[in-house]
Amino acid sequence: MGNKRDDIRRLIAHVTELGWRRAGAEEWGALRERFQGVSESALRKTLVDSGVTIGQPWRGVDIQSLEGLEETLVELAHLYPRDPALTRKMVIAAKDKARFASRNSKAAEDKRALKREMVEWMLVWLGDPAMFATWVRLRKEQMIKEQL
């Protein structure tokens, strides 16, 4: 394999050539094998930037927005019964990353507050993934009331 930039270019060309719109287990496995020099996070970003929808659990936990976090946690709650260890590991890693960001004194307070909220959501999910969808609906209603 070449350098990382070349690997990303080849990945984009490969996905474009195949015309993929969605990547699931088979596609993810083939890409991981073919592009071993590309990190999973770079692979995810490149696929998303190329317009490819990535299925769970390969897409991971979105901690860019509350909407993205909600979507991925609900999806992972559905996968939890089949692979609790993997889904918990993914959520714990995302929670730790969000917690670290929430403590970054160089970040704006609104960003730190968002990351603290995300940590709370993931702790609830870790407590009981099956009840997360109901809890998050109630939490969002409460957040709207708090803004009024």
Brief overview, please?
The chain has 148 residues and is an all-alpha fold.
Q: Tell me the span between the first and last alpha carbons.
A: 55 Å
Principal-axis shape equals: globular
Tally of distinct domains: 2
Instruction: Supply Rg.
Output: 17 Å
What is the typical, i.e. mean, pLDDT? 92
**Strand element count:** 2
Biggest pleated-sheet summary? 2 strands, parallel
The structure class reads mainly alpha
Describe the protein in words.
The chain has helices at residues 4-18, 25-34, 40-49, 66-79, 84-102, 109-127, 132-147; strands at residues 22-23, 53-54. The radius of gyration is 17 Å and the shape is globular. The chain folds into two domains: 4-54; 66-147. The chain is built from seven helices and two strands. The longest helix has 19 residues, at 84-102. The termini are far apart. Strands 1-2 form a two-stranded parallel sheet. With 148 residues, it is mostly helical. The model has no long low-confidence stretch (mean pLDDT 92).
